[in-house]
Amino acid sequence: MELRHLAGFVAVAEELHFGRAAARLHISQSPLSQQIRLLERDLGVELFERSTRSVQLTAAGRAFLEPAREVLASASVARRAARASGRGEVGRVSLGFAGASSAVTLPLLTRAVAAELPGVEMALHGPHYSAETVSRIAEGVLDLGFATVPSSRGLNTRLVRRDPLMLAVADVHPLAARRSVALEELSVERFVAFPAARGSEVRELSVRACLEAGFGPAIVQEAPDSFSLLAMVGAGTGVALVVEAARSIRLDHVVFVPLDGEVPVLPVCLVWRRVDESAVLRAVLDLAERVLPTPD
């Protein structure tokens, strides 16, 4: 049983037409018919019911189709892995991420690596606050990371997202029904925020925005991560300013309300060491260049 015979079978099974399947495979119809006959002889069953007007899968053909697809897919992965190894694109890349701000960009990169770089193992570390991720990259503990702290400490950065702040409130809060809200209106509210001690960029940006609006936020509770923070918001502990990406965390009793005017924005960057020139990291960075959008 040869891979080209399996590929021919799958093409005919999907097209249910020998002419279209042959054109798809860039071969003539006669060699394709010969491949199918050889495959049927090898298996000892007929895979297709043929007539002058139609081609249909037999019961054996229907049973054989999915395993044939799986074999072809595995062969494709093996082929890509061998080629990647020849280019030095085999190894492990440790990647740090920073909570909700990475929720959009992280899956785009990791799924692309899994699909296109089968020789690369992505080891994810997080969520960490951005300052922690940056420090770990600078120290060589991590190879790569998503962070909201651009840095020049021997690091390269590439902007991959601009994340505006939004208001998160409980669904029973009076502001939950609003289409938008001005920051000045929040001066009477109690706030839930990330801990100040761990260098949260979201907290710093939120406090700075409130001060520019003429008030200092009354922070009554701190939360270690985005899920806990939004759970406290839904429980009515207070309101919170969060990045737009936090909307990916779905909680029944939390509503997100856009801010009026010039909205503060948190930049999300891909960060790596300038001195790291490994082939495997370069392959991931080249892929990131293709799959991660560049903000306007």
TrEMBL record:
A GO CC term attached to the entry:
protein-DNA complex
Q: Does the keyword Transcription apply?
A: yes
Gene Ontology terms for molecular function:
DNA binding; DNA-binding transcription factor activity
Q: Where is the HTH lysR-type domain?
A: 1-58
Q: Which Pfam families match?
A: HTH_1, LysR_substrate
Where does the UniProt annotation place the signal sequence? none
Gene3D superfamilies, per the entry: Periplasmic binding protein-like II, Winged helix-like DNA-binding domain superfamily/Winged helix DNA-binding domain
Q: Which UniProt keywords apply?
A: DNA-binding, Transcription, Transcription regulation
Taking the record's annotation, the residue ranges forming a coiled coil are none
Stored SUPFAM superfamilies: Periplasmic binding protein-like II, Winged helix' DNA-binding domain
PANTHER family recorded: HCA OPERON TRANSCRIPTIONAL ACTIVATOR HCAR (PTHR30346:SF0), TRANSCRIPTIONAL DUAL REGULATOR HCAR-RELATED (PTHR30346)
Q: Which family does it belong to?
A: Belongs to the LysR transcriptional regulatory family.
Protein name per its UniProtKB record: DNA-binding transcriptional LysR family regulator
Annotated source species: Pseudonocardia kunmingensis
